[in-house]
Amino acid sequence: MALENQADRLIAGKTILLTGAGGFIGSALAQSIVQLKPGHLILLDHSERNLNEIDLKLEGSAARDLYTSVLGDICDTKLLSEVLQRYLPDVVYHAAAFKHVPLMETNPFAAVANNALGTYNLAKLVRASGVANMVMISTDKAVDPISIMGASKRVAELSLLNLDNSRTRMSAIRLGNVWGSQGSVVPTFLSQISHGGPVTVTHPEVSRYFLKIDEAVELIFLASAFEGGIFIPQLGAPMKIVDVAEYLINQDQSAVEKAIPVTFTGLRAGDKMSEVFLSEEETAEPTIDRRLLRVTNKKISDDRFHLDIDELSNGVQQRHLTSMIETLCKIVPTYRPTRLLRSATAHASA
After folding, report:
1. Which of 166, 95, 131 is nearest to 14 (CA)?
2. Most buried one in 17, 76, 338, 341, CB count within 10 A?
3. Is 17 helix (H, G, I), strand (E, B) or coil?
4. Helical (H) or strand (E) element with 292
5. CA atoms of 208 and 210, how far apart (whole Å)
């Protein structure tokens, strides 16, 4: 049976919980899920505006009793427990995350609380509720991270690896930049072009992997058809960001006529020159579908991991930056905090 058909079978007639349902990827997933005729779709998002927008979009294409919109935060464990107990989902697609790298560097507690601890607690509740399948959208920034966002998403990946079992399979798929998403440069470039420029790029050599939203959704569904683990897409070559900027300028005739310039602003805190999908400690194995590779990881001992998570949670609750960063480095040994966070840590410890 084709894997696409297996993914369809995971959704058709089933109860699906989608976190981050109002975000760019979340809303695309929501619209694709309703087309596969689930028994019920629960849309969870902490943004009233975003949740209302996806609610209205689905209203025009799906029966109103096919989906339920829940305004809430994945850090609210009581709400999550209530949702899981009330609706008993078969599959959880976890798209909720804070994604903007520089913003998270100046809000590290929020990044860890939402991305790392929120995912860990959600995964624990999902497993305890006997949900059959949980799939998280991860990022290439989780590989050898230098940003707090990337490190928090790596902890989220490790949470799924450690909580995966025979009853609840847990998967994560690392994606690169999705064209048009809130974390993508494309909307920013288009806005700058519409205002007459200049178009700002951090560095002439910065490159990123890109994929279209329909490709991202297809890969997420595909990952949900496999056994648990971390998956990466089989992508082509990365693109230089300056080439993306020049392409968008050339696509706009008025921008060409105005000779809109590209200016370089310098790397921001947490930015890398290029991203990779595998660390040196990982290997990728082919799956039965050439579009996805399975990542092999060394599993951290369960007892040690859960103790470290408790320590991380204490650091967040007490807003003790030094403790939180030290614990993050213990859980994710390849994490290299930025100078901005090292300075903040030194100041907090003084």
Report:
1. 131
2. 17
3. strand
4. strand 292-296
5. 6
| Residue 197 · residue 258 · CB < 8 Å | yes
Helix runs in the chain, H state only: 3-11, 24-35, 48-59, 77-87, 101-105, 108-111, 118-128, 148-163, 185-194, 213-224, 241-251, 253-258, 302-317, 321-331, 339-349
In eight-state DSSP terms, residue 44 is E
Tell me if the pTM is above 0.90: yes
Q: What is the pLDDT along the chain (350 residues), one digit of tens a residue?
A: 455 566 788 899 999 999 999 999 999 999 999 999 999 999 999 999 999 999 999 987 777 889 999 999 999 999 999 999 999 999 999 999 999 999 999 999 999 999 999 999 999 999 999 999 999 999 999 999 999 999 999 999 999 999 999 899 999 999 999 987 766 788 899 999 999 999 999 999 999 999 999 999 999 999 999 989 999 999 888 999 999 999 999 988 776 677 899 999 999 999 999 999 999 989 999 999 999 999 987 766 778 999 999 999 999 999 999 999 999 999 999 999 999 898 888 777 65
Q: Is 258 a catalytic residue?
A: no
The alpha carbon dihedral of 18, 22, 25, 31 has a sign of positive
- Is 270 within 8 Å of 147 (Cβ atoms)? yes
Q: Which class does domain 3-178+210-235+276-349 fall in? A: alpha beta
Place of tokens 């290299």: 336
Q: Are 184 and 251 in contact (CB under 8 A)?
A: no
Q: Report how far apart the first and last C-alpha atoms of the chain are (Å, whole number).
A: 61
Which one of the listed residues 141, 153, 212, 330 is annotated catalytic?
141
> How far apart are the C-alpha atoms of 136 and 94, rounded to whole Å?
5
Paired tokens of 321: 């930056």
User: Which residues face 210 on adjacent strands?
Assistant: 177
